[in-house]
Amino acid sequence: MFSNYLKNYRFWLLSLALIAMLMVFVRPTQNQPRPIYNYTFIIDITRSMNATDYQLDGQAISRLEYVKHSLRGLLAKLPCQSKVGLGLFTERRSTLLFEPIEVCQGFNDIDTALANVDWRMAWAADSRIASGLLNTLQMLEKLDTHVVFITDGQEAPPVNPRYRSDFAAVKGKAKGMIIGAGGLQAVPIPKFNHKGEPDGFYRPDDVPHRSTFGEADLNPEKIQGYNARNAPFGSEAAVGSEHLSALQESYLQALSTEAGLHYQRLTNVDDLAKALQIPAFAGQKTIAVDVRWQAAMLALGLAVLVYVRVVRGRWNTVRKAGSL
Amino acid sequence: MMNLAVDTPWWLAGLLLTVLPLFNSGIQPSTYPWLQILPIDPLSQAISVILRVCAMATMAALVLGLAGLHETEQSRERIAYGANIVLLLDRSNSMDNTFAGKTPDGANESKATAARRLLSSFVEQRPHDLLGIAEYSTAPLFVLPLTDNKAAIHAAINATATPALAYTHVSKGLSMALDLFKDQPLSGSRIVLLVSDGAAAIDPDSELQLRVAFKRRNIRLYWLFLRTAGSPGIFEKPQDPRDDNAGAMPERYLHLFFSSLNIPYQAYQAESPDAMQQAIADINRLEHAPLHYRERIPKRDLSGACYVWATGLLAVLLAVKFFEVKR
Fold first, then answer.
1. Which residues of A touch B139 (CB under 8 A)?
2. Residue numbers of the domain that contains B85
């Protein structure tokens, strides 16, 4: 009586489906290399980051707010087991708030910490980007993390070209990226009073327009009113547009080349995520990936075939169920 | 109460496939010369229905498994011994010196290093606490909200190994620490543990705000003062009454301010890492009030169960195939 079942294609379909399902339990996971990332975001919280030249939902928001928004968006896009640390930059160095934390488990904590980043956390004024970057790279050297330094590149006061930071010590060792935040159009920088309330914008008289530290980089004979001791930069008042701020893209690109870092302008979350998730930053980790879906899908396909009329039967044949 | 959800909802469209067995029995039809001669057999009809239901269930189980059926994350209320603790850490320059006020060498660790080491072990001993971290120097730094993620807390404590910042502006730091409790439901004790090696005069405006905030948020305050040799202590009275003011003796005046808050307050003056360890052990012992907290039960994957069911049902269907006859 049982000899006929071998000719029955449905029997074979069901047998294969059952074998496929047994595979689900024999080999539920497969070890696959997956890229994971380790970043430490260093956010510039100097005053120029308050300049409002980004748009979000039709509203103008400051560079700092947009940076926070983008990083929080990026956080959700990072694969689990990636790690993210956070630090702040102002003056000429940065501080680390926390070392890299696993993103999935610590998502809430990192997200809240990012949301609470504020320019009022700055412990000193000044914005010496180059020396801050150098300091950051040296500080994080031991941490085995990719430094993501986010700034608008506005040096305040301007750097004297004679005293530029030398990145030779970290070049090649440092890994990471400079993210340029801000627009290319110069915009005024908001000013706040001692209570932290908005108080207009910085005016030309409020900011130094050139460095007056050390010796001038120009030939003394060409400086008007030069006096080696009393007026090494001459007697003329400096004029400039340092009270306005734009993204100093060429400067940041030059810095990133000097320090051996990548450069990317911050435009939106997707581009940021794409720029950061590059193979150069990816660490390989073998993760046991759930592959049960493969066998289950095969079984489902086979099971469906059992109940679909594959072979056109004769219509006059009576299909009788349960012909035991 | 079960809360079910799936990872990839569009897979649920596959549930439409389960109607297939309604139209097709999945059994090889047999020709029969004259149907009318066959009597209606309730048993056969019942078996037919059961087989179709089995087939539908198989497909449904497979689709649900593929969609990633799971029970969502739940929480249940528990009572344990613990507290909500905000660590308020001083990041001023002087923390990088030893208790003797010198640059650390091999034999003597800096105050920051000692604090880091002891706080790390303190965190280890408090499995049920929610911890948050704020830091301050010239400006307050928000580090981590109240969290049960101990790895994150350790990462933040380790990060204080980076060089310290500028000055000591304690009042702003205190208001930030109090703000960490802002959205926290009132459950368990709320503790601010201030670890500093100095103090600063508090201006009258912030003094008033702090008084209100400490009272309203129902805070217990511990001040672990790391005293550097030769510097004025918090319990010390000046010999010259003219020096008895907040500008000259900020530590003493901060202590007086804390004492006048009418909140549970305890100050520890540690002059060595050992004294500091004792103080921390003392706090650890004192703060064991029952705390209501919600324990998170992580989401439970049910796709495995779906696959088990699918396999079992497939086995039934296959077994039935052995009894199929072909004439």
1. 120-123
2. 76-295
